[in-house]
């Protein structure tokens, strides 16, 4: 009877080990998937941030051009007024 108990305990231990192995395998697989997903999201985030920064830089550049045009026209008007006053 002692050997039956030992056999049953050994079988239970083996089954528990198989369950633990199965769990660890599934967990590892999901952790790998999660890491890949996080990397993909981070890459998309970085690309989007770069895209938005480029758009902001373009807006600054356009604004500077518009300011320069206004300043140039302002200078022309001032020069015209001064020449008329002479």
Automatic annotation (TrEMBL):
Coiled coil: 27-54
Remorin C-terminal domain ranges (all copies): 3-79
Keyword annotations from UniProtKB, A to Z: Coiled coil
Name of one Pfam family that matches: Remorin_C
Domain of life: Eukaryota
Record-stated family: Belongs to the remorin family.
Protein name: Remorin
Organism: Thalictrum thalictroides (Rue-anemone)
């Amino acid at each position: 009877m002692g050997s039956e108990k030992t056999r049953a305990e050994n079988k239970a231990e083996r089954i528990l080990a198989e369950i633990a192995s199965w769990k660890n395998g599934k967990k590892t697989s999901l952790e790998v998937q999660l890491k890949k997903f996080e990397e993909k999201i981070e890459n998309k985030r970085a690309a989007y941030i770069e895209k938005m920064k480029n758009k902001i830089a373009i807006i600054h550049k356009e604004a500077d051009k518009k300011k320069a045009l206004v300043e140039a026209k302002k200078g022309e008007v001032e020069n015209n007024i001064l020449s008329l006053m002479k």
